[in-house]
Amino acid sequence: MKISEIKTEIKKYGLSPTSQRELSLFSSSSIAVGYVLLINDIIGFSHKAVCCFYNGAWTNYLMNERFIAKKTSNFLEENIKLLNNIFDKLDLLEQKMVKVNIEASKNLKDNPRLGLKIIVDEYAEYMAGIGVYNCFWRYLKFPGKKLLLDKKQIGKISRKREKYAKVYPETEILLKKIVKKIGRRERFDGELLLFLSLFEIKKYVEGELDVSKILKELEKRRKHLFYYYSNTGEEKIISDKKIIEKLSKDLPKVKEKKITQISGQIGYGGKVSGIVYNLIRTKMGAPKKNFILVTSMTHPKEIVLLKKVSAIVTDEGGVLCHAAIVAREMKKPCIIGTKIATQVLKDGDKVEVDAVAGIVKKL
Hints:
The chain is an alpha+beta fold. The chain folds into two domains: about 5-250, no CATH class; about 255-360, Glucose Oxidase, domain 1 (3-Layer(bba) Sandwich). Helices cover about 45% and strands about 15% of the residues. The chain has an eight-stranded mixed sheet with strand order 6-13-12-8-9-10-11-7. The chain has a five-stranded antiparallel sheet with strand order 1-3-2-4-5, with helices on both faces. About 45% of the residues are buried.
């Protein structure tokens, strides 16, 4: 597939930046397969395509949020009575992944390759479950003419999503332990295995792929890559930096200097002024207390940091996201889903977070 063809596909499917994660190619391709193929078995519709850019630290995902919000709205109009059945299916997927992690852990010492296979065989299906919760998340962001979920249902989805999503950080930690163990045994940098796609790593664990022949390619992917997967089954991986830069050229760019105000959804109400600490772009340690945390999204591992902040501002998220849940628990002003906060707000900027109006102003 040529660069022009990939750009055409991105435009055709209406893909635009939606989220940012610290995830490897293997995990990202598991998400793509889960969201594009396997999610359909749970709710009867799916994403048409998913792609992402990796820069050596963060993976930025492109999806069509409005398309999924509309499909979710249609689903709820016709099947809202089936929500409990959906939750039951997701509960089973969560329990299954917990068991998978336990079984994989048992093989860590004596047979790490088998441990890796156990996770690889199930991870995309688990990610599909996260995709279902995120369909509701995106629907709440773009609800259409009428919100079809009441507060009780939204609260239930929020709690269940939070519980479900706690499993994958544990899986990610286990994955790193397993691949490092494999690398020590087979005498290469085991973490490079995580820069195989789901389909490639399946071949590896089955003994059908000799990684020693592609280590240089995996080294390149660890620095930067582009990944694309569509419902036609087409997978594209690019590790050439120049090509990736050309691909990303047409993506929406933010003119930082001209923007003095951004808006988003209200995670928790309140109004406060303070100094920005941009977790994504910072070059310094976090202030001791009373600062405005600006980040792409928050993680459970950052709970100590979150206790010190005056307010939270995120690029992504909806009322079900971790940042919104924590903000409500801690009663701290929070604005989510701004898309561009981490690009516009820099360390040291003085801002006013008006989480009553859903606006962040530079002062």
